[in-house]
Amino acid sequence: MRKSWNPARLKAKAARPDVPIIMITAYGDADTKRNALENGAEALFTKSIDFALLRSEIDTRVERAA
Question: Per residue, what are the HEC states of 3-60?
């Protein structure tokens, strides 16, 4: 049985709410995505990663934080 995302894994969000959390996982199911987003992730990418899309997401998040 695969473990779901635990809020403790995303405790950095509580410590630094100004830092966006972008997660990368091998699991692509809807439950994984929903659980990660509910626990503080702002974006979730699954393998195989589209690095251009990842870079765009990072750029967008950095611009919003500035």
Answer: CCCCHHHHHHHHHCCCCCCEEEECCCCHHHHHHHHHCCCCEEEECCCCHHHHHHHHHH
Residues 40 and 4: beta-carbon distance below 8 Å: no
What are the residue boundaries of the structural domains of the chain, listed by start? 7-65
- pTM for the model stands at 0.70
What does the pLDDT look like over 12-41, one tens digit per residue? 677 777 888 888 888 888 888 888 888 788
CB atoms within 10 A of CB 32: 18
Contact 39, 60 (CB under 8 A): no
